[in-house]
Amino acid sequence: MNGRFFDGKRVEASLYSGKQRFQRSSAGEDIKGEGDEAEKKRLDDFAQWLLTEGE
């Protein structure tokens, strides 16, 4: 899979060592108008969904 093209983009695959830290890009903020508060709410809603999914 590493190095192949998918949907016009090159795929980079590697094994996760548990130490990578990825930063959120700011590309989507201009389109959606979201800030840090909206991001926190989205993550809290997702955490709540994870906790209640099995019920």
Describe the structure.
By secondary structure, this protein is mainly alpha-helical. The chain is built from two helices and two strands. A hairpin with a 2-residue loop joins strand 1 (5-6) and strand 2. The model has no long low-confidence stretch (mean pLDDT 78).
Explain the layout of strands and helices:
Blueprint: E1 5-6, E2 9-10, H1 27-32, H2 36-52
Antiparallel strand pairs: 1-2
Strand content: 5-15%
Could you state the order of secondary-structure elements as H and E? EEHH
- Broad structural category: mainly alpha
Alpha plus pi helix count: 2
Strand order of the largest sheet: 1-2
The average pLDDT is 78
User: Total number of β-strand segments?
Assistant: 2
How would you classify the quaternary structure?
single chain
Summarize, please.
The protein is mainly alpha-helical and 55 residues long. It has helices at residues 27-32, 36-52, and strands at residues 5-6, 9-10. Helices cover 42% and strands 7% of the residues.
Key attributes of the depicted protein:
55 residues, two-stranded antiparallel sheet, 42% helix
